[in-house]
Design goal:
single chain, 384 residues, alpha+beta, Helix Hairpins, 4 domains, four-stranded mixed beta sheet, 9 helices, elongated, zinc-finger, Chaperone protein DnaJ, heat shock protein binding
Length: 384
């Protein structure tokens, strides 16, 4: 069976530029890749055919020979090593051609990055850091400036972050030729791995800095001032750009994230911007009514009028006495929850007074009277 024309296989004209040839090959390789066409038994043959055509047309000398002699240019005395699709060096050519489209097909999954010149980043970005900071509810109400000490890796001053001693420059890694990754062929596929010599940086340092041992950074504790706005709550995250770990060999610095935890308060419970305060009230005050004094989160105090006949659990609202909204300027409310307190350690006289009151208070407990009326009806219903 006669072999198809290479230009026809890739769908380009004879005057196509190298970039047009490469673009056409990538499209065909994606279209006919066996992994994407499991239900098409011809996909592997079409894929190899496109690869064979690209091997010739991407090389200026082979292309010129093909334009002049056609397929006959690679038959006969030229040997298998020069023949597209042949054994020996031809298999290496296949891996080389396949690598051109490898990143397009699998780059996102392998994490590879290829620039226009085939290189990769020489410097790695520093890691982001997390610092857990505990503050009081009062600090969250007011806002504050907090000084924190953060252990971190900072740029080495001896080598200015390059990792090289005496102003020398890193050199291209001989193992990966600056790519930061190496390829190995396993059967039909070409697999990429991080270069073991340079750890993916693409460069090595022949004369490393004594202070940082070639890393370009050293461990050091830093003191930072953090602005905590009013209204923060547990889980609030504050980002300090560029205050994280220094990058490897002059790479960009990471960020520092402050995670806040607002501690529990002995008087107030918080729900969003609202505060709740449980205040004990004497039985007499709850029965007769009166005024009580309650604390507020700003350190002040407010007087609250207790209506006569108040029961435990009754709430009263103090508007705008709660927490401020974060960067909003408004305030929530404060709720006073009454807890009517039963007197203890009574004297004989107090006990007698309560007995006398009980004897005269048949109509003073409406809730109790209603409850026991329901209980009596329940029991009568069970008997019948």
């Amino acid at each position: 069976m006669a072999k198809r024309d290479y230009y026809e296989i890739l769908g380009v004209g004879r005057g196509a530029s190298p970039d047009e040839v490469k673009k056409a090959y990538r499209q065909k390789a994606k279209e006919h890749h066996p992994d994407r066409n499991a239900d098409n038994p011809n996909s592997e043959a079409l894929f190899k055919e496109a690869n064979e055509a690209y091997e010739v047309l991407k090389d200026a000398d082979k292309k010129a020979a093909y334009d002049r002699f056609g397929h006959a240019a690679f038959e006969g005395g030229m040997g298998a090593s020069a023949r597209p699709g042949g054994g020996g060096a031809g298999q290496a050519d296949f891996a080389s051609a396949f690598s051109d489209v490898f990143d397009d097909l699998f780059g996102d999954f392998m994490g590879g990055q290829r620039g226009g010149g085939g290189g990769r980043q020489r410097a790695a970005r520093g890691s982001d850091l997390r610092y857990n900071l505990r503050i009081s509810l009062e600090d969250a109400y007011r806002g504050m400036q907090k000084t924190v000490k953060v252990p971190s890796a900072v740029s080495c001053t001896s080598c200015n972050g390059t990792g090289a001693e005496g102003g020398s420059e890193p050199v291209t890694c001989p193992t990966c030729s600056g790519m930061g990754k190496v390829r190995a062929q396993q059967g039909f596929f070409t697999v990429e791995r991080t270069c073991p010599t340079c750890s993916g940086l693409g460069q090595i340092i022949k004369n490393p800095c004594e202070a940082c041992r070639g890393a370009g950074r050293v461990e050091k504790e830093r003191t930072l001032s953090v602005n905590i706005p009013a209204g923060v709550e547990t889980g609030t995250r504050i980002r300090l750009a560029g205050e994280g770990e220094a990058g490897m060999r002059g790479g960009p610095t990471g960020d520092l994230y402050i995670f806040l935890e607002v501690t529990d308060h002995e008087l107030f419970q918080r729900e969003g911007t609202n505060l709740f305060c449980r205040v004990p009230v004497s039985m007499t005050t709850a029965a007769l009514g009166g005024d009580i004094e309650v604390p507020t989160i700003d350190g002040g105090r407010s007087r609250v009028k207790v209506p006569a006949g108040s029961q435990s659990g009754r709430q009263m609202r103090l508007r705008n006495k709660g927490m401020p909204t974060l960067r909003g300027g408004n305030h929530g409310d404060m709720f006073i929850e009454m807890a009517v307190e039963t007197p203890v350690n009574l004297t004989s006289k107090q006990k007698q007074l309560l007995r006398d009151f009980e004897a005269e208070s048949e109509d003073n407990h409406p809730e109790g009277a209603s409850f026991f009326t329901k209980v009596k009806g329940f029991w009568d219903g069970m008997k019948s």
